[in-house]
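Field reference: sequence -> structure
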Amino acid sequence: MSKIYQGQYISNKLPYQQQLAKIYQVSRFTIQKAIADLVDMGIVSAVQGSGIFINEKAIVNPLIFNSITKTLYKRLNSKMLKFEK
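Structure field:
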Protein backbone atom coordinates (compact mmCIF):
# COMPACT_ATOMS: atom_id res chain seq x y z
CA MET A 1 0.00 0.00 0.00
CA SER A 2 2.87 2.37 0.70
CA LYS A 3 4.06 2.21 -2.92
CA ILE A 4 0.56 3.16 -4.05
CA TYR A 5 0.55 6.23 -1.76
CA GLN A 6 4.10 7.13 -2.77
CA GLY A 7 2.96 7.33 -6.39
CA GLN A 8 5.26 4.60 -7.64
CA TYR A 9 2.62 3.33 -10.06
CA ILE A 10 2.42 6.24 -12.45
CA SER A 11 -0.09 4.65 -14.78
CA ASN A 12 -2.45 3.98 -11.84
CA LYS A 13 -2.22 0.32 -12.74
CA LEU A 14 -0.51 -2.30 -10.61
CA PRO A 15 1.77 -4.92 -12.13
CA TYR A 16 0.29 -8.33 -12.91
CA GLN A 17 -0.05 -10.82 -10.05
CA GLN A 18 2.87 -12.92 -11.29
CA GLN A 19 5.10 -9.84 -11.36
CA LEU A 20 4.04 -8.79 -7.86
CA ALA A 21 4.71 -12.31 -6.54
CA LYS A 22 8.21 -12.19 -8.02
CA ILE A 23 8.91 -8.65 -6.74
CA TYR A 24 7.83 -9.45 -3.18
CA GLN A 25 9.02 -13.08 -3.27
CA VAL A 26 5.70 -14.48 -2.09
CA SER A 27 3.20 -16.91 -3.57
CA ARG A 28 0.56 -15.82 -6.03
CA PHE A 29 -2.05 -16.83 -3.45
CA THR A 30 -0.58 -14.26 -1.04
CA ILE A 31 -0.77 -11.60 -3.75
CA GLN A 32 -4.38 -12.55 -4.53
CA LYS A 33 -5.29 -12.20 -0.84
CA ALA A 34 -3.56 -8.82 -0.58
CA ILE A 35 -5.32 -7.57 -3.72
CA ALA A 36 -8.67 -8.81 -2.40
CA ASP A 37 -8.03 -6.85 0.81
CA LEU A 38 -7.18 -3.70 -1.20
CA VAL A 39 -10.35 -4.16 -3.26
CA ASP A 40 -12.41 -4.56 -0.06
CA MET A 41 -10.90 -1.32 1.28
CA GLY A 42 -11.69 0.48 -1.97
CA ILE A 43 -8.07 1.28 -2.76
CA VAL A 44 -7.94 -0.68 -6.01
CA SER A 45 -10.36 -2.16 -8.51
CA ALA A 46 -9.66 -5.47 -10.22
CA VAL A 47 -10.97 -5.76 -13.77
CA GLN A 48 -10.70 -9.29 -15.08
CA GLY A 49 -8.62 -9.37 -18.23
CA SER A 50 -7.54 -5.74 -17.87
CA GLY A 51 -5.64 -5.53 -14.59
CA ILE A 52 -5.68 -3.95 -11.18
CA PHE A 53 -6.28 -0.21 -11.11
CA ILE A 54 -5.70 2.27 -8.30
CA ASN A 55 -8.80 4.24 -7.34
CA GLU A 56 -7.94 7.93 -7.53
CA LYS A 57 -10.31 8.89 -4.72
CA ALA A 58 -8.79 6.36 -2.35
CA ILE A 59 -5.26 7.76 -2.60
CA VAL A 60 -6.16 11.30 -1.61
CA ASN A 61 -5.68 10.52 2.08
CA PRO A 62 -3.30 7.66 2.97
CA LEU A 63 -4.69 7.47 6.50
CA ILE A 64 -8.24 6.55 5.60
CA PHE A 65 -7.97 3.00 6.88
CA ASN A 66 -6.74 1.31 9.98
CA SER A 67 -4.74 -1.54 8.46
CA ILE A 68 -5.33 -3.84 11.41
CA THR A 69 -9.10 -3.61 11.60
CA LYS A 70 -9.66 -2.60 7.96
CA THR A 71 -12.07 0.03 9.23
CA LEU A 72 -12.44 3.59 8.03
CA TYR A 73 -10.74 5.89 10.56
CA LYS A 74 -13.80 8.11 10.72
CA ARG A 75 -15.77 5.11 11.99
CA LEU A 76 -13.33 4.29 14.77
CA ASN A 77 -13.89 5.60 18.24
CA SER A 78 -12.29 5.26 21.63
CA LYS A 79 -13.41 5.31 25.22
CA MET A 80 -11.38 6.21 28.30
CA LEU A 81 -11.89 3.56 30.90
CA LYS A 82 -9.88 5.04 33.75
CA PHE A 83 -7.73 8.10 34.27
CA GLU A 84 -5.42 8.50 37.23
CA LYS A 85 -3.12 11.35 38.06
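Note: The longest helix spans residues 28-40.
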